[in-house]
Amino acid sequence: MVLMALLVAAMGIHAGVTSNGNSTSPVGVGAFLDPQNMARAEVGVAPLVWEPRLAEFARGYARQRRTDCALMHSEGPLGENMFWGSGRNWDITDIVAAWVTQKQYYDHNLNVCNGPDCTHYTQIVWRNTERVGCAKIICDSGDTLAVCEYSPPGNYINSRPY
Hints:
36% of the residues lie in helices and 18% in strands. By secondary structure, it is of the alpha+beta class.
């Protein structure tokens, strides 16, 4: 039992998440930001900059969803990626990887998604997007919800991300 508690505590530290669900420690910021910037670099797009105000907005919206853990987008003026995962053991890097792996469904030549959704990926690599802020919480159900907010937003119809 003690070993399990230590393992869970270590996973929380690795993910940059404190017991109250914050994901803004330096480890958490890097875990959100670094893989997104790697995806952007792969397609020749400038890196995103972490914006604390966007992270606060993301955290506030995630907390609004804490009771239902629903993947319902906010009605704000920002680009937004959301993630839901069963249980609490989701590392931030796994969450971002779920979005970035959607690259396989994006056909840049035709500017379409082939198969499942690829709009999380296209928001990440959207050329005009400059800033991001994210948060990860544990919902009342014990499941994981993550939100990233992007400014300026992307995913405009008939426009290419890069």
